[in-house]
């Protein structure tokens, strides 16, 4: 049985269909005989899940500063990378991440307009040169994505940020993905079946080239 390892990340705005697509990616890799660990950010360890609750909470009685939000994202990421992702990769497993560092660039950098130097410093401190092996970005107009997300119930603190916030985040995603090696943009406004088909085709292509 072939065993290698790889860190695959699925990115996109809310309602883009990340959770839906991750199930298909896990099935694809399992059928290839790979062991797959799925993660989500913020979250994925007991402490990081507590941070997730904290960061999504509305905190109506006080303002959550940009810096606090950013630090919490990286605190959760540090816990996840050190305790789950790196050990899994060292065991020759595949890790499929529902969001990773690019989310901070899009949401805190683009959406909240945090200075890029601050983001880069935190990235360096937390991750060093650790990067995903393959990134799938599910691109969706924020109006459509939020409509899908709303269908699931109440919006959390970040989802309440307003349309312009998400438009800025989307623009950062699009610009960054273009310049990244091993990254692909998928049109997530299509039907679930079409999105899955595009994702699996891109994944198969990447996987075959990787296995050569
Ligand atoms: N955040 C941040 O600010 N900075 C960071 O560094 C990180 C995160 C890591 C995480 O919340 C929040 O944290 C997120 C970004 C921020 N906040 N916001 N806003 P989350 O994990 O709860 O939110 P999410 O990652 O955006 O998950 P999501 O809303 O569940 O989106 P999704 O996983 O992409 O979508 P889904 O669950 O697969 O689908 C949503 C619904 O749409 C569902 O009913 C599906 O059946 C439906 N769907 C999916 N695909 C389709 C298609 N193609 N057609 C029609 N309907 C569809």
From TrEMBL:
Keywords: ATP-binding, Kinase, Nucleotide biosynthesis, Nucleotide-binding, Transferase. HAMAP family: Thymidylate_kinase. One of its GO terms (molecular function) is dTMP kinase activity. Belongs to the thymidylate kinase family. Residues 10-199 form the Thymidylate kinase-like domain. ATP binds at residues 12-19. The keyword Phosphoprotein does not apply. The keyword ATP-binding applies. Its EC number is 2.7.4.9. Phosphorylation of dTMP to form dTDP in both de novo and salvage pathways of dTTP synthesis. This is Thymidylate kinase. It catalyses: dTMP + ATP = dTDP + ADP. InterPro entries: P-loop_NTPase, Thymidylate_kin-like_dom, Thymidylate_kin_CS, Thymidylate_kinase. SUPFAM superfamilies: P-loop containing nucleoside triphosphate hydrolases.
């Amino acid at each position: 049985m072939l065993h290698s390892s790889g860190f695959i990340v699925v990115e996109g705005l809310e309602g883009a269909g990340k959770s839906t697509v991750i199930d298909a990616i896990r099935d694809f890799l399992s059928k290839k005989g790979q062991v797959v660990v799925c993660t989500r950010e913020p979250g994925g360890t007991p402490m990081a899940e507590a941070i997730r609750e904290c960061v999504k909470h509305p905190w109506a009685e006080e303002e959550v500063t940009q810096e606090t939000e950013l630090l919490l994202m990286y605190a959760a990421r540090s816990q996840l990378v050190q305790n789950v992702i790196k050990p899994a990769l060292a065991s020759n497993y595949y890790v499929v991440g529902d969001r990773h560092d690019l989310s901070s660039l899009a949401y805190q950098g683009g959406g909240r307009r945090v200075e890029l130097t601050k983001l880069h410093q935190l990235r360096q401190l937390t991750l060093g040169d650790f990067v995903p092996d393959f990134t799938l970005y599910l691109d969706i107009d924020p109006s459509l994505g939020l409509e899908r997300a709303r269908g699931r119930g109440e919006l959390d603190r970040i989802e309440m940020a307003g349309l312009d916030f998400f438009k800025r985040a989307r623009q950062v995603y699009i610009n960054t993905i273009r310049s990244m090696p091993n990254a692909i943009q998928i049109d997530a406004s299509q039907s679930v079946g079409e999105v899955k088909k595009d994702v699996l085709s891109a994944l198969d292509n990447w996987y075959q080239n990787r296995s050569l």
